Amino acid sequence: MNHLPLPHSDGLVLAHTAGDLGFITLNRPQALHALSLAMIRDLTEALLTWRDDPAVKAVVVRGATQEGKGVAFCAGGDIRFFHTAALAGNPQLDDFFTEEYSLNHLIHVYPKPYIALMDGVVMGGGMGISQGATLRVVTERTKMAMPETNIGLFPDVGGGYFLSRCPGHVGEFLALTGQVIGAGDAIAWGLADTYLDSGDLPALLESLADQPCENGEQAMAAVRARCKAAPPLAWAERRDAIDRHFSGADVAGILVSLNRATESWAAELPAVLRKRSPLMMAVTLEQIRRAREMSLADDLRMERDLVRHCFALRSGTASETVEGVRALAVDKDQNPRWNPATVEAVTPEMVQDFFRSPWPAFAHPLRHLA
């Protein structure tokens, strides 16, 4: 076993090679492996190092477990950092999103098999470092979501790209509600590839480390050989109704449809959506629908524009995102003061402002993405 020195995150990302594979372990279990800028830098460094190393045939990524802590692959980004950095005008906030989205793109275009073991919580930034994987493995403990509208943000890290490619209007449903789904629905909706019992993961990792691989395809075949049939569906069986309700032209139209719903689960959703930022729900809906016609690189550039507006167009305490994080994670009063306060008060001009890039194309921070 050869350990790869990673200089940024002080052990929050571990990397080593064993046999013919590279293994990356997120090692921040006390925070469900929420990503910091330092962790993003170490993830990027490991992948770039192994990309050009012919001895590494494939890469396996997982989250460490610790007794007494929740099980997670990665619960997202460090939202407390977002809050403090935004209020302080810390330029590392810009660095965080530029480097995170660059990492997301690197994973999608990585030339070697990248295998994500998505055990436990997989949300937000965790989706960003797993959806581009060559093989996405879920377990009975997988809890998957893009819950950014809870904090007045939008489903970023390429969320526009991969959610918009879910069947029908599932992308709008997942983006607006932040609904948590399990393994069966994730596979059915194209957000995971195969299923493995969590109890089988240690033996899988041991065999991958010990088994010689002539190429990355052999490593993926070794994983698939241990996988099992996916568990039963829950939300995916409701596809017809989801498509009907979430095909509305705008958020107000979606709410009208849900308010008329005869399905009990759908009738509960207006109350859920009314807790979200009206403005950022409208921005999210526009994001998902624009992204259907975009490449991944163009979607990430759009999302970089959006996140800049989230923290700069409406800066400091005027930011919906800063206010959402305050209410959810800082003061924890669960009472965000959204502006505008209602869906009906959001104008098209407010939404379109978010889609005007703050940068000319030649100066965009993600101009290098192919």
TrEMBL record:
Pfam families, sorted: ECH_2 (PF16113)
Keyword entries, A-Z: Hydrolase
CDD domains: crotonase-like (cd06558)
SUPFAM superfamilies (alphabetical): ClpP/crotonase (SSF52096)
Coiled-coil parts of chain: none
One GO BP: L-valine catabolic process
GO MF, one annotated term: 3-hydroxyisobutyryl-CoA hydrolase activity
Record-annotated Enoyl-CoA hydratase/isomerase domain positions: 22-355
Name recorded for this polypeptide: 3-hydroxyisobutyryl-CoA hydrolase
Organism field: Caldimonas brevitalea
